[in-house]
């Protein structure tokens, strides 16, 4: 009994790690099999931080412990993989190098050899609305120019951050609810990711995209720090306020210092005010009063109004600070009080000493030494902070992204964001491109030019994002929309990929077809129509199948199906051809359908008693070559009741001659047997010989001869087709 | 496979059965989601999911039979009609599937989608369903397994059904036709077929006027809405109303203002339009642009995807719509 292979989803899909093999952000993802990698190896690779090539580790490894790759492959083993294009999924399995018979050594097979690993970067369900909503924002913004009607652009663009915040809120709420441990872990990972989105997006917005030039970056950065860096525990502040001897509280001054570093003027002023009110020691109270006075002058976005005097006011305040730092009463506030004043006077050493992170230090240096600093001149201050807080090994990816943003290096930002998440980099690249930050002549983009990359960086990342979504076919509209908006390479990819979208229901099929039609994806339209036609044919819905085959320009299949319909009609007589063909648009030009339609109209006219028009249509079918020759015998047999019509002569001499010619062509042909095959069978003799079939036509022959004579005597009046004329009435 | 053999070849197989869910939401606290007119963000509400249940296949249509314990009836892409009972036990709402039966399929060829369902008005005891198999089926609410009547094959694929009264039905076909049936014998009693002489696109939806029994509205895959008077079968009553730029998925008469129609479409918009204004002489040459002068359009700044379904709460005057983006759109009319 053959063993069934185990289909085993692998967790390894989530464990993408970096390889240093290629460092270009434009490398294509590859899959490596690493049999001896450990968690430490993975971490080490991640620390390397070059995740341009995705290495997929199969877990559990198909190669047993202590087995070398060499000996594993010697036993007729290799790795096979099958790619599933519609979902970007890979099935990886242990395959044989040669057929078992060709391999001399008897092979030992284990369960590891029969394991199929399904590798797919799945998307959490909770993220789906976020993806769809940001896709909506993308479509609205990507077509707009930020410099033309900037307010309209901004209204749409700001939706990105709003959608991120909304999703973040949802995740916070979810994390509060009781959940299974697995869900909680997944939720925490998602939360961390989206917090990253939120933080990077807002910082990019402040540095690269703000149109609010009047607002100095120093204040925007401290606002960003307050919103996105939870380094300050507000609970500590509450505890301090609740205590009786606040200045003696061990956290009083550290809290004040942190608030000052973060530019939280209101908080620090409130605490000092409260402390001053309750202070019983007059000397300390005097010192606090002086301190409070200084604090009230801390630069804020409100104090930096564009009246041209902001810098003057700031200089004056700095002088006040310097002055207060030197007054003896400050000594009543102790060393910590002096440190607080050192922060306010912009003492970089003290700031670097007190700040908990480089962001905090950067915010304080910016705010107290150069609050009016332009976003283009941040580098010197940034370097000081990074040098003090970050060694190369300590730098996280998020740090690298933030630093790149503050350096105003759009390309570096995207390069690092590319390692963070495809969603983030795609949307940032789109907005950067619109603001003109991605110039292809930039030297740092020359590696693209040198390899002849025929696209721009924005298109590349949008395509990359679209590909990352392909694991969920329900996102096909967003994927298609992104690919459609990523240049001609994206469109080419789309036309290939959309053919693999599972059609599922007829509603979805219509949506896909409509999308292709609206976006001129003609090749895809044809392919999908062909798939749908085959499905309809399988179900016996011939008219719908014909419609789809016509759309796919598959004339041979249309011919086959019209034959099926005709045969079905001839055999059962119950099929309403007119009804069956109604779904095929009138303007469709296809000879086979036209024949069927004319044939159905002939029957309709005859049924309605319009024998004249019925006769004209019948002759037209024979003479215009519209009817295939194999149906001529049937059509001639259909003429019998018209030839027998006693009230009028339906066919004139010319028509009769034509019909006689057709009759002779059928019975005189070497393919006679084939041509006579469609003739209806009698109930009495279900199997007809060729001779018996020919006898049926002999009746037609006789009637044609008689009609010829009648038409010579009573020539029918010539009337236009479809007129009301019912032919010449017999006078005798 | 025997010992010593590896896998030589594997293929991906298309998994056809999609598992959907059916959920009940509470919308008592209008705060969060919004639908906007002319890009203004004003109205917000916050739906809370109360309960959900699995559903075999894609939900293609859904109706409610009101009562002490409302019953949801669904049509599925698996050709099944399902009944779900909703109840509140111990203050906790629940939804449970109570019955499912496949009513649509191709003999020997498998599944045919159940594309649309309609509940018999007043009596509320029968469900009419139509499917890809081109059949109209009547079944009892109390015994869904039992087919009361099944028509022969009608045309090529049926897309929508509605009850005109408790004794007659209207069915829309993929060939752009309307077919009317007498409920007493749907097998033999197809009353008439109506075909728009100029529009042969697939009719996607159909609805009955709330007070005038002879009036029907249909939407088609080209974004056109037609109003029909079944007493005059030669052509639709109105001129071609090009309400949307893409497939219309649902159309309904406004319950409080029957002169208005509400529709939703693949183009990501909802429309409320005054169809009475379009009662001029029938015009065959439909323009390619929307009839914006008679319609008001609604869309969300964050939704560009298809709006698949709409419903109007006539007491709260709330218009709801569900879209491909997974959002529930909302507006007060």
Describe the structure.
- By secondary structure, chain A is mainly α.
- Helix content of chain A is 58%, strand content 4%.
- Chain A has 34 helices and six strands.
- A four-stranded mixed sheet of chain A has the order 1-4-3-2. In chain A, strands 5-6 form a two-stranded antiparallel ribbon.
- In chain A, helix 8 packs parallel to helix 12, helix 9 runs antiparallel to helix 10 and helix 14 runs antiparallel to helix 15.
- Chain A starts with 5 loop residues before the first strand and ends with a strand.
- The relative contact order of chain A is 0.05.
- Chain B is globular and about 65 Å long.
- With 333 residues, chain B is mainly beta.
- The interface between A and B is large, with 62 and 55 residues.
SSE topology string of chain B: EEEEEEEEEEEEEEEEEEEEEEEEEEE
Quick one: overall form of chain A?
elongated
Q: First CA to last CA of chain A: what distance? A: 87 Å
Low-pLDDT sequence parts of chain B: 29-43, 281-288
Radius of gyration of chain B: 21 Å
Structural class of chain B: mainly beta
Sequence of strands across the biggest β-sheet of chain B = 3-4-5-6
Proportion of residues in extended strands of chain B: over 45%
Task: Summarize model confidence as the mean pLDDT of chain A.
Answer: 77
Q: State the major sheet of chain B.
A: 4 strands, antiparallel
């Amino acid at each position: 009994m053959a063993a069934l292979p185990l289909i085993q989803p692998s967790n390894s899909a989530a464990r993408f790690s970096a390889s240093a093999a290629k460092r270009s952000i434009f490398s294509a993802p590859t899959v490596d099999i690493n049999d001896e990698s450990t968690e430490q190896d993975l971490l080490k690779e991640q620390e390397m931080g070059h995740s341009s090539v995705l290495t997929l580790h199969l877990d559990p490894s198909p190669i047993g412990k202590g087995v070398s790759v060499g000996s594993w492959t010697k036993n007729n083993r290799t790795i096979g993989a099958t790619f599933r294009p519609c979902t970007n999924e890979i099935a990886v399995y242990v395959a044989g190098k040669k057929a078992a018979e060709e391999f001399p050594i008897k092979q030992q097979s284990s369960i590891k050899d029969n394991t199929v690993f399904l590798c797919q970067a799945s998307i959490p369900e909770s993220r789906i609305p976020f993806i769809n909503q940001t896709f909506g924002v993308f479509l609205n913004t990507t077509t707009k120019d930020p410099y033309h009607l900037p307010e309209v652009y901004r209204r749409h663009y700001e939706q990105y951050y709003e959608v991120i915040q909304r999703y973040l809120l949802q995740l916070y709420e979810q994390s509060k609810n009781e959940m299974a441990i697995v869900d909680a872990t997944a939720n925490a990972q998602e939360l961390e990711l989206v917090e990253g989105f939120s933080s990077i997006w807002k910082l990019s917005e402040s540095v690269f995209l703000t149109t609010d030039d009047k607002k100095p970056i120093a204040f925007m950065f401290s606002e960003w720090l307050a919103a996105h860096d939870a380094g300050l525990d507000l609970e500590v502040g509450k505890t301090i306020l609740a205590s009786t001897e606040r200045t003696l509280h061990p956290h009083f001054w550290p809290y004040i210092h942190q608030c000052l570093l973060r530019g939280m003027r209101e908080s620090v002023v409130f605490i000092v005010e409260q402390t001053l009110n309750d202070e019983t020691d007059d000397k300390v109270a005097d010192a606090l009063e002086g301190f409070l006075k200084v604090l009230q002058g801390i630069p804020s976005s409100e104090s930096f109004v564009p009246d041209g005097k902001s810098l003057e006011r700031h200089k004056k305040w700095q002088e006040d600070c310097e002055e207060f730092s030197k007054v003896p009463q400050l000594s009543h506030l102790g060393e910590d009080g002096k440190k607080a004043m050192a922060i306010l006077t912009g003492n970089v050493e003290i700031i670097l000493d007190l700040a908990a992170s480089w962001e905090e230090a950067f915010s304080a240096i910016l705010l107290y030494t150069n609050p009016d600093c332009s976003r283009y001149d941040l580098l010197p201050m940034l370097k000081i902070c990074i040098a003090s807080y970050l060694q190369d090994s300590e730098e996280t990816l998020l740090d690298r992204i933030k630093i790149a943003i503050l350096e105003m290096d759009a390309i570096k930002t995207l390069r690092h964001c590319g390692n963070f998440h495809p969603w983030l980099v795609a949307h940032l690249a789109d907005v950067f491109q619109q603001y003109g930050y991605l110039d292809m002549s930039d030297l740092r983009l020359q590696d693209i030019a040198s390899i002849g990359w025929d696209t721009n960086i924005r298109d590349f990342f949008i395509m990359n994002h679209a590909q990352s979504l392909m694991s969920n076919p329900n996102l096909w509209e967003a994927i298609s929309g992104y690919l459609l908006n990523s240049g001609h390479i994206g469109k080419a990819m789309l036309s290939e990929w959309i053919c693999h979208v599972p059609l599922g229901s007829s509603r979805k099929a219509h949506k896909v077809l409509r999308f292709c039609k609206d976006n001129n994806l003609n090749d895809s339209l044809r392919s999908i129509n062909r798939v749908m036609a085959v499905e309809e044919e399988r179900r016996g819905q011939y008219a719908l199948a014909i419609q789809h085959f016509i759309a796919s320009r598959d004339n041979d299949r249309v011919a086959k199906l019209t034959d099926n319909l005709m045969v079905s009609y001839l055999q059962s007589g119950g099929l309403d051809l007119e009804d069956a063909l109604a779904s095929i648009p009138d303007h469709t030009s296809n000879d086979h359908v036209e024949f069927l339609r004319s044939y159905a109209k002939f029957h309709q006219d005859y049924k309605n008693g319009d024998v004249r028009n019925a006769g004209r249509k019948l002759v037209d079918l024979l003479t215009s070559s519209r009817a295939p020759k194999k149906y001529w015998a049937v059509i001639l047999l259909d003429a019998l009741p018209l030839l027998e019509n006693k009230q009028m002569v339906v066919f004139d001499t010319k028509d009769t001659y034509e019909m006689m010619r057709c009759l002779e062509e059928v019975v005189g042909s070497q393919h006679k047997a084939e041509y006579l095959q469609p003739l209806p069978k009698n109930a009495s003799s279900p199997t007809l010989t060729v001779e018996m079939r020919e006898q049926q036509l002999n009746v037609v022959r006789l009637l044609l001869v008689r009609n010829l004579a009648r038409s010579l005597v009573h020539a029918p009046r010539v009337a236009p087709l479809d007129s009301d004329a019912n032919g010449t009435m017999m006078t005798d | 496979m025997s010992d010593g053999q590896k896998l030589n070849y594997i293929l991906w197989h298309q998994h056809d059965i999609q598992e959907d869910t059916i959920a009940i939401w509470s919308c008592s606290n209008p705060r969060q989601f919004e639908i906007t007119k002319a890009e203004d963000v004003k109205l917000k509400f916050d739906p809370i999911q109360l309960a959900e249940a699995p559903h075999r296949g894609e939900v293609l249509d859904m109706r409610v039979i009101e009562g002490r314990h409302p019953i949801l009836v669904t049509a599925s892409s698996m050709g099944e009609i399902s009944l779900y009972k909703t109840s509140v036990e111990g203050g906790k709402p629940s939804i449970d599937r109570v019955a499912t039966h496949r009513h649509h399929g191709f003999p020997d060829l498998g599944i045919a989608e159940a594309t649309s369902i309609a509940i018999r008005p007043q009596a509320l005891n029968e469900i009419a369903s139509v499917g890809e198999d081109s059949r109209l089926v009547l079944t009892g609410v109390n015994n869904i397994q039992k087919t009361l009547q099944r028509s022969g094959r009608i045309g090529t694929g049926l897309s929508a059904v509605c009850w005109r009264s408790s004794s007659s039905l209207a069915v829309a076909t993929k060939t752009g036709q309307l077919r009317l049936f007498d409920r007493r014998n749907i097998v033999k009693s197809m009353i008439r077929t109506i075909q728009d002489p100029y529009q042969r696109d697939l009719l996607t939806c159909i609805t009955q006027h709330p007070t005038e029994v002879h009036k029907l509205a249909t939407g088609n895959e080209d974004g056109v809405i037609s109003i029909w008077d079944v007493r005059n079968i030669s052509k639709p009553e109105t001129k071609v109303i090009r309400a949307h730029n893409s497939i219309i998925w649902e159309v309904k008469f406004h319950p409080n203002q029957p002169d208005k129609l509400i529709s939703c479409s693949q183009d990501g918009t909802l429309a409320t339009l005054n169809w009475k204004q379009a009662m001029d002489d029938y015009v065959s040459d439909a323009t390619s642009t929307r009839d914006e002068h008679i319609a008001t359009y609604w869309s969300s700044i964050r939704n560009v995807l298809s709006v698949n379904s709409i419903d109007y709460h006539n007491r709260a005057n709330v218009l709801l719509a569900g879209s491909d983006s997974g959002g529930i759109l909302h507006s007060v009319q």
